[in-house]
Prior knowledge:
By secondary structure, the protein is α/β, with parallel strands linked by helices. It has a domain at 38-204. The protein is built from 10 helices and 11 strands. It has helices at residues 2-17, 62-66, 71-85, 114-123, 135-141, 144-149, 205-223, 233-237, 301-310, 327-331; strands spanning 41-50, 53-54, 60-61, 90-100, 155-160, 169-172, 194-200, 271-273, 289-291, 314-319, 322-325. The strands form 4 sheets. It has a 5-stranded mixed sheet with strand order 4-1-5-7-6. Strands 2-3 form a two-stranded antiparallel ribbon. Helix 3 (71-85) packs parallel to helix 9 (301-310). The longest helix has 19 residues, at 205-223.
Amino acid sequence: MQILKSFQKIWGNFRDLLGGEKIPKDIVKPGIPTEKRAEIIDLKALVIVFQPADPDDYGRRLTDILGWQDVDVLITKYMEDLKKCSHGIANYQVVERIEVDEFPLKQDGFRYEMKGYRHSMQSRTGFHQPDQVDYERLIDQFNIIERINRNEMDEVWLFGFPYAGFYESRMVGPSSFFCNAPPLDIYAHCLRRFVIMGFNYERGVGEMLESMGHRAEFTMSQVFKNDHSEANLWRQFCRIERTHPGRSQVGTVHFAPNSRHDYDWGNSQPVFSFSDTWLNFPGLVGEKRWMDCRDWGSGDIRLHHLWWFNHFPHFHGLTNGISDNWWEYILVPDRVR
């Protein structure tokens, strides 16, 4: 153990001498040859912000009362980050932003009142259970299926407060699959699958990227669901040192290559990793190298997720019948078979 600690210290000092950066150096890959460049995917998002105001507190909105994030800043940074880490593929635009001066209705008919909710936030007790929002009511209230069918939008982003009852992502439409939440496939007249994202404006862009990350994990698991072999590329991508000693690759949303537990993105223990080879997909050529948390942001949630997403295959072509651009599956659920 002492030898390992000494090596870690020497390795850290060596990295510092080389000018080790806290920001991952390969978040954006250099120019991709035109013939390999994947198509840009233009996406339209409907944003619904549940922003109740307190009439007993000068009509101030919940985010102002409790000092939470500016939703418009979150939206802008989230779209910029997705475009950046997808190598320009994910090109979102907000087609409409609706602000709702109320608490959303829960599935069992409960709705918070401002006084009760503020008391629960102050005491961190008494939050209503079950927590889940009434998705069917939301879909009807905002005429979402009809708007999807008219191609007015491609997905929905819900913004709310802690305990608003949103899933991080939920898929809706024909033959929907589990996407970090049970599928909502009861709408026979819906012409295509789409995803409703749920964001918490108490948190930051890093947590928004995490929600998209879990959506990506479940989507790619569905894409590769019929491949149970060691050649399953998604399983290879997710390998970490703890499960595959000496063969770690990029990892998962919660686990960096050297993580020992969930959210362990700041682990300084160096490990050999093949993660760089994914930047050369589909060849996966290159050598493994020593890596530690400095390669993916030294524990910063947003920087780790940008680094992780940056390694997703993003090229034109097919490998074993599956697109070399994994983003098309994550962003367009109907392309998943």
